[in-house]
Design brief:
Elements (H helix, E strand, L loop, with lengths): L1 E2 L5 E2 L6 E6 L8 H10 L4 E2 L4 E6 L5 H21 L11 H10 L3 H9 L8 E4 L9 H10 L4 E5 L9 H6 L3 E6 L6 H9 L3 E4 L2 H13 L3 E4 L13 E4 L2 E7 L5 E3 L2
Parallel strand pairs: 6-7, 6-13, 7-8, 8-9
Antiparallel strand pairs: 1-2, 3-5, 4-5, 10-12, 11-12
Length: 259
């Protein structure tokens, strides 16, 4: 059992995660992709060849096991989708085989490469998702490969040690993290306490509204959340109808990355 965004609140007595993915009900796959997956994964499907069942119980953290199960699902689907790629008719040499294997890219990797063109060092990125759900994991993995540094990342969460933004943290590619729910990312905690990582923790509703304000073209807004706490330090405050409010500014970012 778990609670919180993406299951980051952990019940240590039960860490096994079971993931079921119904291919036919997915809105993320085209009809052609669904047929291809059903054909290539036929012997691994259950429930009338429509469902993928995966389990993970490799760590004592339910959140990490959930991340592992999701990664297994993505790897399995990508493997099924690339199986039908055109093959070279001539007999390849051993060297060409090794080159093809090492350079083959999944459709998700190709889309990430195209979407992230233009991202360079010292930029500010907004990344979607809630907890471990809905995060742009393919794009984050490509950012790791790109090697861009000194990033400021705005996100609801900081991922876990080996998934999501945790991968960028491990590589020391993030200089500042603006977040609300950091969960159980031990590397995030270590860098924050050691002073390696600049951190701005803000209320979850305020984070959402700062995103919304940026999208709507509003430079700032007042909110009662955080008044009288460290959140309000250094910020303008104002009274409306007998209640105190804090002025929060809209986010400014170079790229917004969503799944």
């Amino acid at each position: 059992r778990s609670s919180g965004p993406g299951g980051q609140h952990v019940n240590k007595t039960e860490t096994k995660v079971e993931l079921r993915f119904n291919i036919s009900d997915s809105v993320l796959l085209t009809s052609a992709q669904k047929r291809m997956i059903s054909k290539n994964l036929g012997n691994k499907l259950i429930e009338n060849n429509s469902t993928i069942l995966l389990t993970a119980q490799e760590t004592r953290s339910q959140a990490k096991n959930k991340a592992l199960a999701i990664k297994k699902l993505h790897d399995l689907i990508n493997e099924a989708l690339v199986q039908d790629e055109p093959r070279i008719a001539t007999r390849p040499t051993k060297a060409s085989k090794e080159k093809r294997i090492s350079t083959k890219k999944t459709s998700g990797e190709i889309k990430s490469m195209q979407a992230l063109q233009g991202i360079t060092n010292d930029m500010t990125l907004m990344l979607g998702g809630f907890g471990l759900c809905g995060i742009p994991e393919n794009a984050i993995a490509h950012l790791v490969k790109m090697g861009v540094n000194n990033l400021t990342c705005i996100s609801n969460n900081a991922g876990v040690d080996d998934f999501g933004l945790g991968l960028l943290l491990q590589n020391k590619q993030i200089k500042k993290m603006i977040s609300s729910y950091v969960g159980e990312n031990e590397e995030f905690e270590r860098q924050m306490l050691s002073g390696e990582l600049e951190v701005e923790l803000i209320p979850q509703g305020t984070l959402a509204e700062r995103c919304k304000a940026a999208q709507g073209g509003f430079p700032a807004f007042y909110t009662p959340a955080g008044y009288g706490t460290e959140v309000a330090e250094g910020k303008e405050t104002r009274e409306f109808n007998g209640k105190m409010y804090v002025l929060e500014k809209a986010f400014e970012a170079d790229f917004a990355i969503v799944k």
